Amino acid sequence: MIPATPRLSARGLAKQFGPTVALAGVDVDLADGESLAVMGPSGSGKSTLLHCLAGILPADAGTVALDGQEVGRLSDRERSLLRRRRYGFVFQFGQLLSELPAIENVALPSMLLGTPRREATELAGRWLVSLGLAGMEWRRPGELSGGQAQRVAVARALITGPAVVFADEPTGALDQATGHEVMRILTETTRAAGASLVLVTHDAQVADWCDRRIEVRDGLVRSAEGAR
Ligand SMILES: Nc1ncnc2c1ncn2[C@@H]1O[C@H](COP(=O)(O)OP(=O)(O)OP(=O)(O)O)[C@@H](O)[C@H]1O
């Protein structure tokens, strides 16, 4: 049988910041619909790996391919379009625009892809209801709890139907119980939407929500194990 092309595939990723080696040659494969936790101590290169995989940061060496297509060969414009169309992002905090209500924060990525405002707003409203935020649609981020704001961020990441969701410490600013609730919603909805997930965390219990985990140390993948 011919093995399926990985959804996302990185080979030999290397990145240096001045004298600091952040990535020293990393290979990663992410299957269609798979969730992968990237673990490791502070400063080991986890966020740099996520940024290189997502095409936010150019690697010094190595390749990243989405569905077999090398992202490094694209122009800056094509790469930013690809990020908008095919990727969703959830960060620790700060990704929501503070002056816009939740529903408009969620609708925005869809509108940026050309969906008319009314349609995008209706779709955003459905996402918010399905993530348990009925009645909170018109609250601004400052009027939401940390866990509610992260659920808005999950809706915002998924509204465009991405192939891959990248999440960098999405529970880092939450207490344990709220963090687990956000992880349940993030993994369930990502899976239901048919997207793959790359999650950076230093918390083993958070990583347990993913299908598989890798451990980054000193810019290298040191070990890989199934989380289940
Ligand atoms: N923009 C930058 N300029 C200079 N050095 C950087 C930059 N970004 C990352 N680094 C360095 O690269 C190394 C890897 O950083 P990275 O943020 O990827 O680690 P991390 O594992 O995500 O850490 P943490 O868990 O603390 O967020 C660190 O030594 C960091 O100081």
TrEMBL record:
Coiled coil: none annotated. The keyword Nucleotide-binding applies. The keyword Transmembrane helix does not apply. CDD domains: ABC_MJ0796_LolCDE_FtsE (cd03255). Keywords: ATP-binding, Nucleotide-binding, Transport. Residues 8-228 form the ABC transporter domain. GO terms for molecular function: ATP binding. It comes from the Bacteria. This is ABC transporter ATP-binding protein. It comes from Cellulomonas fengjieae.
